Amino acid sequence: xxxxxxxxxxxxxxxxxxxxxxxxxxxxxxxxxxxxxxxxxxxxxxxxxxxxxxxxxxxxxxxxxxxxxxxxxxxxxxxxxxxxxxxxxxxxxxxxxxxxxxxxxxxxxxxxxxxxxxxxxxxxxxxxxxxxxxxxxxxxxxxxxxxxxxxxxxxxxxxxxxxxxxxxxxxxxxxxxxxxxxxxxxxxxxxxxxxxxxxxxxxxxxxx
Length: 208
What we know:
Number of domains: 1
Number of strands: 7
Order of helices and strands: HHEHEHEEHEHEEH
CATH class: Alpha Beta
Largest sheet: 7 strands, mixed
CATH topology: Rossmann fold
Structural class: alpha/beta
Radius of gyration: 17 Å
């Protein structure tokens, strides 16, 4: 497996610091259970565990997740890791307070299915934080997948997350300095979105 091969090194190939966009918006995540998709070597899940979240990181690479566990242990933290292809990973209905998707690039049909499951899997009031490369990234060549089918646009994400309220949604070009595989200007799409509260939540707010 290509990712097992890439992660088989003492070096953390995407670094050990969290993604900058996640760092900026993490305070919006409700306390509780957070799911990190395609979390690789764990830099984002370990960061969130350090903020007190109950963290589950899923990735197809057991080698990457073993490094994530070591990173967590070295910082005196605990995370749950699940080795699974995202095509086979069940996201239970309304079971997550937050979902984090940082450079999680999968084929478009799977992505649409996955994002539908994310919408269903968030609890009312739950928050999604996502950053990914847009097709424009192919002009920069500073990281990311080799073809546009694996990338996303804001229009794609507005459609796929129609069940959520978009708090922040932009396409930008920014410096992405994350280890050796993400280094330089990158064309990214960023989304922060919240699931609408259900009737019970609304009644609770009214009766406060």
